[in-house]
Fold this sequence. Notes:
Elements: E1 3-15, E2 21-33, E3 37-41, H1 48-55, E4 63-68, E5 71-72, H2 79-88, E6 89-92, H3 106-117, H4 123-136, H5 153-165, E7 171-175, H6 183-200, E8 203-208, E9 220-225, E10 228-234, H7 235-240, H8 245-252, H9 259-264, H10 295-299, E11 305-308, E12 311-313, H11 320-326
Parallel strand pairs: 3-8, 3-9, 6-7, 7-8
Antiparallel strand pairs: 1-2, 1-4, 4-5, 9-10, 10-12, 11-12
The structure holds iron/sulfur cluster (SF4) and magnesium ion (MG).
Amino acid sequence: GEDLLVVKDLKKHFRLDRKTVLKAVDGISFSIKKGETLGLVGESGCGKSTVGRTLTRIYEPTSGEVEFNGMKIGGRIDRGTKRRLNHDMQMIFQDPYSSLNPRMTVTEIVSEGLVIHNPDMKPKERDKRVHELLELVGLNKSHAGRYPHEFSGGQRQRIGIARALAVEPEFIVADEPIAALDVSIQAQIVNLLKELQKDRGLTYLFIAHDLSMVKYISDRIAVMYLGTIVELAESEALYEKPLHPYTQALLSAIPLPDPDKERTREQIILSGDVPSPTDIPSGCRFRTRCPFAMDSCAAVDPVFREVEPGRQVACHLYDPEIMAKEGRELQHQ
Ligand code: SF4
Ligand code: MG
């Protein structure tokens, strides 16, 4: 398929004071095809939400190239482009409790984008459109006049989805849309997002803090650690055989349904805490927690490169030159 979004070496740094720069996103590259879902996974503070907010231009990128639908949007953009992005890219947020204005009715919430982008639409037409959108997300027009507090978490997330869909965007950034919901509701929301994607050819960036649910929606998954992507692969390949030690650790934190497999599998336990994004370790930024760290890991920053078709990883264990220098056996080949 055709790429909808191409990101090259994107950075978003925040200057906190004269001496301190928080490198939330520190040089990431990936692309998303039309109609695809890319999962973006990492612990809190790894920069994944900042990626979403930088792509949708809630934040201005510090540097890097971003191309969306053939438009270059990495640097300065004019008001027309900004307006177009506000329409074509929508966000669904983690917390359906705080992302909906408590003083607005469902109709007002869902039609906000329509009022901005289709100002000529008659109120009656708009109401009709809102009712259609509510049906689409599994609610109905009897909900239209109510307020957010009258709904459950799952229903509120449906309202958030209806709001995002109102202007018929192409691309949706879903920032941990199920993290605040009961497990039983999570699958419903994931299924709804998948159905909507199939019917409308939507493209998703689906952000999550662990690997437990993302596989059900993602075609490919990018794993982030401390502002960079450490591994990117097709979902199945990633779960089948994670290459980066961090991906291995994230996966081994999820219990396996089969108790025999659970008992016998190799656990990767991480030591220490995630370093601060204001003070990133030299070389491989994962080395302070990596059980496989070697001398080269402190000295050389691993290159994010393709080790198999469609599969990229940033780790010296897969680099023949470094492994030869370390006198160790190359992983994986
Ligand atoms: Fe671990 Fe070294 Fe690979 Fe980094 S480069 S993940 S420290 S083995
Ligand atoms: Mg976040």
